[in-house]
């Protein structure tokens, strides 16, 4: 088992939602952490503002092979690859960008890393690669059926990683996390969007809400990533990270509405179902339990409350006209 403390660890997309929580954990553990970001500016990387001075920031665009070579100066021992084009819906509008960010960037990263020895490469894939399946929960042995440019790009990156594991014996692990939520998540994600709308007491327009998803508090997923990088048994494996608890979207909305004591009106059926809707999604997580010894430490309800508490503060800082952030605009 590898002790990640004192290791040189590279986190691509380090200021993203899940990655920022991972970086915070690694810094706390004592690891030497470098993040890749397109801009070396704290304004563009606000999620890691509290640990900014404890990170090595490397300005890289993984789509550019020459740019990617800058990571060699750091000589990473452990790599967590989370950088991605990560909006499923928008990937239909920007398919080329989604493929470039999720497949080409992964190929560039892996090829450049061949020039330096490393101990672990953790590819963070996605549950979206499963697409529509005949049975649920989704098991790792199922044939993926990606149904968005985002998922196709992520699956392509997964296939390249798998090839390097099998053909060249590289020390790699593929993780497929299922839907995450928690502090610092984008308002374009379903849970933050619903929470902020409820806190503002604005109407909620939704589909019928019969489709199911599972939701994993972000620190639970970070636990699994740390274990995957630490355990020898994870080498060469593809592992789901998910609690396996199916929740209908309608139930999710009603639960958040209840927790926020919102006056928002709920309009189910006001939006049409998506043509490419995945009706059921949940993880078979036996492999994560057996190989990683991983189970979710934070329950769904507890995670919702922690997330809601954070978004109440978010509203106070970002949404109020007299907040400190808004006062920064009064520079003239």
Your description of this structure?
- The chain has 332 residues and is of the alpha/beta class.
- It has a single domain (8-184, 213-249, 281-299), classed as NAD(P)-binding Rossmann-like Domain (Rossmann fold).
- It has 10 helices and 13 strands.
- The chain has helices spanning 17-29, 65-68, 95-113, 149-168, 190-199, 218-230, 249-259, 286-292, 300-319, 324-327, and strands at 8-12, 32-37, 55-59, 78-81, 120-124, 172-177, 180-181, 204-206, 212-213, 216-217, 238-241, 247-248, 266-268.
- The strands form 4 sheets. It has a 7-stranded parallel β-sheet with strand order 3-2-1-4-5-6-11, with helices on both faces. The chain has a two-stranded parallel sheet with strand order 7-10.
- Helix 1 links the parallel strand 1 (8-12) and strand 2 (32-37).
- The N and C termini lie far apart (56 Å).
- The model has no long low-confidence stretch (mean pLDDT 95).
């Amino acid at each position: 088992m590898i002790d990640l403390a004192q290791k040189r660890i590279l986190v691509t997309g380090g200021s993203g939602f899940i990655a920022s929580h991972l970086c915070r954990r690694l810094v706390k553990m004592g690891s030497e952490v470098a993040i890749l970001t397109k801009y070396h500016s704290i304004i563009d990387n606000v999620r890691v503002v509290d640990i900014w001075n404890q990170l090595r920031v490397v300005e890289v665009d993984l789509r550019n092979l020459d740019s990617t070579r800058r990571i060699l100066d750091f000589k990473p021992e452990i790599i967590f690859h989370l950088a991605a084009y990560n909006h499923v819906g928008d990937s239909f509008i920007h398919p080329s960008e989604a493929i470039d960010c999720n497949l080409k960037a992964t190929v560039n990263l892996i090829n450049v890393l061949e020039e330096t020895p490393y101990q672990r490469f953790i590819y963070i894939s996605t549950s979206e690669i499963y697409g529509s399946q005949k049975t649920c929960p989704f098991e790792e042995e199922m044939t993926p059926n990606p149904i968005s440019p985002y998922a196709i790009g992520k699956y392509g990156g997964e296939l390249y990683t798998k090839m390097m594991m099998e053909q060249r014996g590289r020390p790699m692990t593929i993780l497929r996390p299922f839907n995450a939520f928690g502090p610092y998540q984008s308002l374009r994600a379903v849970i933050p969007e619903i929470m902020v709308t409820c806190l503002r007491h604005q109407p909620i327009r939704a589909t019928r809400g019969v489709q199911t998803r599972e939701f994993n508090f972000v620190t639970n997923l970070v636990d699994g990533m740390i274990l995957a990088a630490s355990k020898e048994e994870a080498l060469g494996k593809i592992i789901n990270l998910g609690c396996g608890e199916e929740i209908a979207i309608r139930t999710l909305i009603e639960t958040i509405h209840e927790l926020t004591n919102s006056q928002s009106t709920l309009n189910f059926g006001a939006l049409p179902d998506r043509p490419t809707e995945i009706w059921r999604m949940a993880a078979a997580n036996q492999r994560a339990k057996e190989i990683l010894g991983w189970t979710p430490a934070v329950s769904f309800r507890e995670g919702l409350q922690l997330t809601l508490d954070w978004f109440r503060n978010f509203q106070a800082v970002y949404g109020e006209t007299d907040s400190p952030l808004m006062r920064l605009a009064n520079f003239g």
